[in-house]
Design goal:
This protein is of the alpha/beta class. The chain is built from 9 helices and 8 strands. The structure holds 2'-deoxycytidine-5'-monophosphate. The site of 2'-deoxycytidine-5'-monophosphate has 14 residues, from helix 2, helix 4 and helix 8.
Length: about 230
């Protein structure tokens, strides 16, 4: 079997990181891991436990002691889905309440330490495509291939809006755009591991690229790295 590599995909919210990461994983027979889903699962836990104050370190410790995140393969969709303490929360972690709070939860140092450790463990045998905000900088600083994806805000808002409409959610395009904009600001300006392009990451702006063209570009990069 050819040697496997790790592929890190970072970038702004809703610029197609997971679509690209899933396509690469499928083509290479690698495991796709959505690190954002892990932050979303922790956020859902806090929403379900209003007695715990996430700004209070002992409460955060208490929460993390009781959180186990895992993934299960769904043969119908061909993708992994997120489990929180054994419960499939894949749909719940995409809702508005979680989306509005997740950036704040992801600024908590203890939460980041807890999740980064698990993400590194998942990638230790290589053959992983992971997307997020700090994958090329913190989780896998030695990833053989790092991609930093971006697209303009209007294009991202329209894509996300279409996705949410398909899922039957009640939201306006303007609300989606505002949510993305405020997440961009929180993600890029937080003190702990803000969203940053790793110096050795390849920048791809996919505002006007088709999915096929984007995948083709990345597969060329993969082939170069595997030589
Ligand atoms: O990729 P996503 O939109 O599902 O991520 C949800 C939030 O989680 C996002 O606002 C920032 C945070 N996140 C993070 O801080 N680090 C990661 N590696 C992945 C996500």
């Amino acid at each position: 079997m050819p040697q496997q590599i790790n592929i890190a995909i970072d970038g702004h919210a809703s610029c197609g990181k997971s679509t690209l990461a899933k396509a690469i994983a499928k083509q290479l027979g690698y495991t796709y891991i959505d690190s954002g889903a892990m932050y979303r699962a922790v956020t859902l836990y806090f929403l379900r436990h209003p007695e715990l104050d996430f700004t209070c370190p002992p409460d955060v410790d208490e929460a993390l002691k009781n959180i186990a995140i895992s993934f299960t393969y769904n043969p119908e969709t061909g993708h992994a889905e997120t489990l929180l303490n054994g419960e499939n929360v894949e749909a719940l972690i995409r809702d508005k309440a979680v989306s509005s709070l997740v950036s704040q939860i992801s600024t908590i140092a203890e939460v980041r330490r807890f999740l980064v450790k698990q993400q590194q463990e998942l990638g230790k045998n290589k053959g992983v495509v992971m997307d997020g905000r700090d994958i090329g900088t913190v989780v896998f600083p030695d990833a053989e291939l790092k991609i930093f994806l971006t697209a303009n805000l209007d294009v991202r808002a329209q894509r996300r809006y279409n996705e949410l409409m398909d899922k039957g959610m009640q939201i306006t395009l303007e609300e989606v755009k505002q949510n993305l904009q405020s997440r961009d600001i929180t993600d890029s300006t937080r003190e702990i591991t803000p969203l940053l392009q790793a110096p050795d990451a390849v920048l791809i702006d996919n505002s006007y690229l088709t999915r096929e063209k984007q995948l083709e570009l990345v597969m060329e990069l993969v082939a170069q790295k595997m030589k």
